[in-house]
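Why this split exists: single-chain examples teach little about how molecules sit against one another. For that reason, every record in the complexes split bundles all components of an assembly together and asks for one structure covering all of them. Below is a record exactly as it appears in the raw files.
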Amino acid sequence: AQRVTQPEKLLSVFKGAPVELKCNYSYSGSPELFWYVQYSRQRLQLLLRHISRESIKGFTADLNKGETSFHLKKPFAQEEDSAMYYCALLLNDYKLSFGAGTTVTVRA
Amino acid sequence: DGGITQSPKYLFRKEGQNVTLSCEQNLNHDAMYWYRQDPGQGLRLIYYSQIVNDFQKGDIAEGYSVSREKKESFPLTVTSAQKNPTAFYLCASMTPWGNTEAFFGQGTRLTVV
């Protein structure tokens, strides 16, 4: 069965330090992967998708099919990056599954 | 204003009663989704619908039912068979090809007493 795993529930980093959020998936087909973010008192929203291969708010994520991973990285964390981050997997039948989420706290 | 709207924001029900949560979108999206968000468990998929008059069970469909009679609407009924219905429920919609970005409602917090 397809699955998205985010091993870290909580992540705390200092401002200016690098941050990496781990995401692993299990799916035998061709995956479409995303990172969504939920800031305090805001709706869940798309941060980036692997197809676009873009950098959003300084974040990047590379799909590694060999390791079935889609880790999210940012070289210099900012206080406004404090939020809940979800990795998501879209399957061919439009099923959109999310991981358990990682709460990131960036300390000054 | 385009968007996805869930109502009500807070809902209280007595144990044993069915309750229906509303989700409406005017984004012309074909696919719609219902999730349950519990602390430490992330977003768990209850039901999803790729198109009008069709829907599929997600990972935790037991005790829930849905309908998709209109493209804009995807109501979720929490039945008395759901053993632990108190939770935060999120609805989302998406065009599942091209720009595959899901848009979320603001959520409904259901409390069963």
